[in-house]
Write a structure and sequence with these properties.
Layout lengths: L1 H20 L12 H8 L3 H17 L7 H33 L15
Helix pairs in contact: 1-4, 3-4
Length: about 120
């Protein structure tokens, strides 16, 4: 019994380390708040596309954008929220991975059988 618990702990740690050591999480989606739109909307026309592409590439792929001027200022203001969202997504992925790897406990009570 003790060895089994130990092995489970070792396997769980190994999975967590593997997940943590992987390249940055490539996300399929992220939350684009209306405040992001407002910040980008106030940029001069020539910087809007650059700022939007930088935000999206950073949020989805973790690629640091090469921005200048007003687009960089907007990105720096938004970046803490993007980092927070990425951290939450990575936490959820680790949690799902550990939950799916843990064996499910078997219930001693079967709903089909009557207690008597």
């Amino acid at each position: 019994m003790v060895k089994l618990r130990y092995l489970r702990k070792v396997l769980k740690r190994g999975r967590e380390q593997k997940i943590m050591s992987q390249k940055p999480l490539q996300r399929q989606q992220f939350t684009f708040y209306s405040s992001y739109f407002s910040a980008v909307e106030n940029l001069p026309q020539c910087h809007k596309l650059e700022a939007l592409q930088g935000i999206i590439r950073y949020a989805l792929f973790g690629q640091e954008p090469e921005l200048r001027g007003p687009a960089l200022s907007v990105f720096k203001a938004i970046r803490p929220n993007l980092d927070s969202g990425r951290g939450k997504a990575e936490y959820r992925m680790r949690k799902l991975a550990s939950e799916s790897a843990e064996p499910r406990s078997r219930s001693s009570h079967c709903p089909d059988q009557e207690e008597g």
